[in-house]
Every structure is written in C-alpha cells, then in structure tokens.
Specification:
With 369 residues, the protein is of the alpha/beta class. It folds into two domains: 222 residues, Alpha-Beta Barrel (TIM Barrel); 114 residues, no CATH class. The protein is globular, with a radius of gyration of 20 Å. This is NAD(P)H-dependent flavin oxidoreductase YrpB (Nitropropane dioxygenase family). One of its GO terms (molecular function) is nitronate monooxygenase activity.
C-alpha cells in the first residue's frame, strides 16, 4: 500500500495500533504497521522500562508514543495519602454498593501502600507530561502524539528539530484546525465510536470534515475500525491511514487479564457506553455494574481529573480480586462487538488487510461494470 502516511513513516501498511501494551506495539510494527505506546498511565521510570524493552525487541522498526499534554489536571504531587484526599461521598457511594453486592473489601494493609503507587501513575500535570516527554526523546521514537490538548510550542519544535513527526487526536474539525496551526504533522480524527476519551461526532461524519478542514495535512481515521471494510471506508473518505485501539485488546499479546478478556469477548457493540465514572471525563468503556452505578440518578457527581481515576482504582481492584466480572470495565470502543476470540496481532493485521483488498476489488468491479 502507498499513502501519504506510509511514505512519511516508511511502513508497509497505514495501520497504527494504539496500545498500553508493549507487546502489541512491537508486534504491530514487525507486521508492517506502526505501534504506538500509550504512556499516559505511566511514571517516567515505568516508561523508561517499557521503551527500553521495545528498543530491544522491535528490530529497528518504527514506533511512537502517545501521551497527555494538558494543564487542566489537578496537581496531586506532595499530597497526603491519595485515599484521604478523595471526598468521602464518592468513596463511600461506590464502595458501599460493592460491599452490599457481596464484593469483598481490600485488606487495609494492601490499600495503604497501593493507593500511593496507583496515584503516582495518574498525575497528568504539565510537569509530569514534560518528564514523560523527556524519557521518550531519549529513545528512537519516530512519532509523538498528544492524546488530549495542544502540546506546548517548545515540545512540538523539539520533535521537529529531531526530525520526528508530531500528531494529535481530535474529535472535531475545529480542534483539528487548531492543532495544525500549532504545527502538528498528522491528525488523528477520532469518532465518538472510539474507546476511551472521545467526542460527540460519529466517524462517518467526522473523518471527511477533518480531511477537508486540514488538507493537505494527512489524517488517520479512528473510531469504529477493526476490519478491512471499515478501513476501506476510512480511506474512501479521505484518510491516509487508520488508528485502532480496541481491536488489539483481544489479541494474544494484549495486557488484559483472563477475566477481563472474558468480559471483552462477551461484549456487544452496544455494551461500549459513555461514562464519567472512569476518569471524570466522557469515556467510552464496557458496560458493567460500575458504569451503571455512576449513571444512576442517585449517584454523586464524578470527581475531576485525576481524582476520579484514583477513586476508580480501588473498585477495579476489588472486582479483579473477587473475580466479579459483572463489576469489571475497561476502556473500549463500539468495535468491541467484533472482538470475540483470541488472535495474534499479526493475524488481525492479515485479516484486516485481506478484507480491505477484497473490498477494494469489489468496488473496482462495480466501477468497471
């Protein structure tokens, strides 16, 4: 395949895999695509370990890093025990529901130290982002992506000075234009079908709007892509490649634990719902008793970033320890309905590209007729 994106990054197929799992990143790049490591939930020390592992296993193939550049997160550095800085109303609400439903509480000795470590991964302030960025720039990354917000000018300039490309996720044409004005090289247009933090506009509407708004800057289509037919639709609407996340969660290489995999494979497209209970921002995740609890009329107001994420950690851990799949959730898009069995990353790539080829051949036949 040959598009502006394959030429820009010297890759065989314009398939970008966003994942928090280093194994998925490596496997995608080795299969001819482009792996992008999600670093937003990491400390600088953790990111250094992950990138070192990727460097040692990726055989010189290109890869990238996705992180958060935003100044809207509350600073929790220097705080006392993170559990103690959370409002009791929200803590008692969700934990009380779980206790009444028979989900065992965590031992106190485990909670005390674990909360501090968990919270350390969730500080999305500008200094924390800059620290992660410094780590990334010490490694041979080819692509730096802003998951939320416009990165500071000096960050984008430093990426360019190093001969690298900078990208950004957007949910509207207006956001895309602002990113291009800031100097971004690649726009990832993410429709509302996508997992994680997402906007309100559906992919079929968003993709061509963004393509037209930022031309000739190349656009990667995201949100609702897991098969070759969807890839063909994205390219037909003007995208130069695709950006996928959910489809990799079900792979052999994925980071998901066995219970969470079972939940993922059983989920239908309609089970990927928008919730504020995950992070405090609109986030598409798998429906469970946890997401329903925060959607209930009697639920208290979710906390701001990053406090809601810190709050969510204990319920998630309780569900995991008790093997309570009905309380488990994970950020996932509506394409989750197509993820129902374990496959390798390479097989997913092969199936996607093969179906893409079949689809384009069918369209060519129609045109010839």
């Amino acid at each position: 395949m040959k598009t502006a994106i394959t030429e820009m990054f010297a890759i065989e197929a314009p398939v970008f895999a966003f994942s928090h799992c280093r194994d998925v990143v490596v496997a995608t790049s080795k299969a001819g695509g482009f792996g992008v490591l999600g670093a937003a939930w990491m400390t600088p020390e953790h990111l250094e370990q992950e990138l070192k592992w990727i460097d040692d296993h990726i055989d010189g193939k290109p890869y990238g890093v996705d992180m958060v550049f935003t100044s809207t997160a509350s600073d929790i550095s220097g705080s006392k025990n993170p559990r103690e800085i959370l409002p009791r109303e929200q803590v008692d609400y969700i934990n009380g529901l779980m206790t009444r439903d028979g989900v065992p509480e965590l031992p106190q000795e485990e909670v005390d130290g674990w909360y501090q470590d968990y919270a350390a991964n969730l500080s999305f302030t500008q200094p924390e982002s800059e620290a992660l960025f410094e780590v990334a720039m010490r490694h041979p990354v080819r692509f730096v992506v802003s998951a939320l917000g416009i990165a500071p000018p000096h960050v984008i300039q430093r990426v360019h000075d190093a001969g690298l490309k900078f990208g950004a996720l957007v949910g509207s044409a207006r956001q895309a234009q602002k990113q291009v004005e800031a100097g971004v090289d690649v726009i990832v247009a993410q429709g509302t079908e996508a997992g994680g933090h997402t906007g309100d506009v559906a992919s079929m509407v968003l993709w061509p709007e963004v393509v037209d708004a930022v031309a000739p800057v190349p656009v990667l289509a995201a949100g609702g892509i897991g098969r070759g037919r969807q890839m063909a639709a994205a390219l037909a609407l003007g995208a130069e490649g695709i950006w996928c996340g959910t489809i990799w969660l079900g792979t052999v290489e994925s980071e998901l634990a066995p219970d969470m995999r079972d939940v993922l494979y059983a989920a239908r497209s309609a089970d990927a719902v928008i919730t504020y209970g995950y992070t405090g921002k609109p986030c598409r995740a798998l429906r469970s008793k946890f997401t329903e609890a925060w959607a209930a009329q009697e639920a208290p107001e979710p906390l701001k970033v990053p406090y809601q994420s810190i709050l969510s950690g204990e319920p998630f851990r309780r569900a995991e320890r008790a093997h309570r799949k009905d309380w488990m959730t994970y950020a996932a898009g509506q394409v989750v309905g197509q993820v129902n069995e374990p496959k390798t990353v390479k097989q997913v790539m092969y199936d996607m590209l093969n179906e893409y080829l079949e689809t384009t051949e069918k369209l060519n036949t129609i045109l010839e007729a």
